[in-house]
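== Sequence and structure of one protein ==
=== Format: two labelled lines per protein ===
==== Data for this protein ====
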Amino acid sequence: MIKFFRRIRYNLMEQNKTGKYLKYAIGEIILVVIGILIALSLNNWKEDLDNRGEENRILSGLKQEFEANLSELNRNIKLNTAAVKSTSDLIYLIRGENPFSNTRYVDSLLYLAYMFGSFDAQSGLIDEVISSGKLSIINDSELRDRLTSFSGILENAEEDYKIRADYYMNQITPYISKYFAQANQDQYMDFSSWSDTYKTKKLTESPFKAKYEEIDLLQFENYIAIHKLNNDFVNLNESELRTFFVETLDIINANLEANSVN
C-alpha cells in the first residue's frame, strides 16, 4: 500500500514538472513571437518612414517640374492666342476695301500668324518615377492616375502641333512667298519670349514689290481660315493642359502639406 501511494506521489511530481516545463516553453514561444512582431513592426515603421521621406522628395520634385511646365505653357498660350487673333484680323482685313493699303500692318499680322509656339514639356521626373516603380510610394491614387495619364495628354497635343506646323510650312509658306515680301516681317521679329539676351539684326525693308494685285482673296482667306482652325485646336489642348497642371499642383501641394503635419 505504501508503495502504491509513493508511486502516485511520484507521478504527481512528474506531472507537475512537465506542466512547469510546458508553461516555460509556451512562455518562451510567446516571448519569441512578441519579439518577432516587434521587430516586424519596427521594420515596417522604418520602411514606412523611409517611403514617406522618399514620397516627399518625389512630391517636391514634381512640384518644381509642374510649376516649370505651367510657366512654359503660359508663355506658349500667349504666343498662340496672338497667332489666332492675327488670323482673324487678317481675314477681316482682306474682306474690307483696300485690304493692302497699310502694308506694314499686313506684314505685322503675317508675322504674328507665323509666331505660333509648341509646348515642350518637362517630364524627366515623372518618367523616372514610373519606370523605376516608385509610383506606388505616392499614397494619393488620384495623383498616381494623373502622372500615368500625362504622356497621353501630351501625345494628343503634339499631334495637333504637327498638323498645324506641317500645314503652315507646306501650304501657307509657299503661297505667301509668291505674293508677299517675307523679309519685311523681320522688322517685327521678337525673341524676348524665348531669351532675355539674344538679339538679332533686323533686315532692311525689301526693295521688291509685293504682288498684292495677283492675290486670289478667297484662296488667301481659305488658307488663313484653316490655319486659324489648326491653332484653335492647339489652343483648346493647351487650355485643358493648363487646367490639368493647376489641378495637379493643387493635389501635390495638399499632399506635401498633409505629410508635413504627419
